Fold this sequence. Notes:
By secondary structure, the protein is mainly β. It has helices spanning 2-17, 186-193; strands spanning 28-30, 32-44, 52-65, 69-72, 75-82, 86-95, 115-128, 132-146, 151-158, 161-170, 173-184, 212-226, 229-239, 255-269, 273-275.
Amino acid sequence: xxxxxxxxxxxxxxxxxxxxxxxxxxxxxxxxxxxxxxxxxxxxxxxxxxxxxxxxxxxxxxxxxxxxxxxxxxxxxxxxxxxxxxxxxxxxxxxxxxxxxxxxxxxxxxxxxxxxxxxxxxxxxxxxxxxxxxxxxxxxxxxxxxxxxxxxxxxxxxxxxxxxxxxxxxxxxxxxxxxxxxxxxxxxxxxxxxxxxxxxxxxxxxxxxxxxxxxxxxxxxxxxxxxxxxxxxxxxxxxxxxxxxxxxxxxxxxxxxxxxxxxxxxxxxxxxxxxxxxxxxx
Length: 282
């Protein structure tokens, strides 16, 4: 089980740190590139938890530039529609597993299994050049949890957000800013914040989370490609003040901080070259 958890953490690290090749402004780029590295990350057990987890995990580096399937800083995406101003794709995300502390608010409750998310995203391109990109993205996710023997539907979430990316903005480093609210149904909120009657205690009364607002996220990212070495960093802050589950006895704080760094060595590239797109420069 520990091996599965470590692998899933590494996969989520790929989504969170954004392991994408930062190409120079070339006419052609390889169809795919692969590498491997390390990415220490820290994050709370769940948003609202005071317990901060540290994961010194392996970091898979994958960049695949297919016509309809792409693996890059935005995760695994299937392109459904693409134009100058509108892009629709199918993409995924996820969250790492978390064990319940013996002395925390979840003491005696089941551990939180890892979750996976998949669904369509409608992306409005406000501006897109080789130097700067501004987009409004609206992903809708179908969420499942797994104990690696079965899948369970958890709920739905939507995360409209504004993203601004800058090419070589900080001493040759790419930079990005993402901000936006999160919304989810009672199933998703309940997975993290419900307290069933059988787990109720004097310090932890029974609770059922509602649906609706789930907090607001601000994330800063930066990355740079040095020949065959990629380096990146991310900082994320979540504020859950006013969230639909804010009264849950499992909520200890209204703030959540996540951060990580990653360094990967690119050891394999495709012999096949394809025309570069703007996506290859961020």
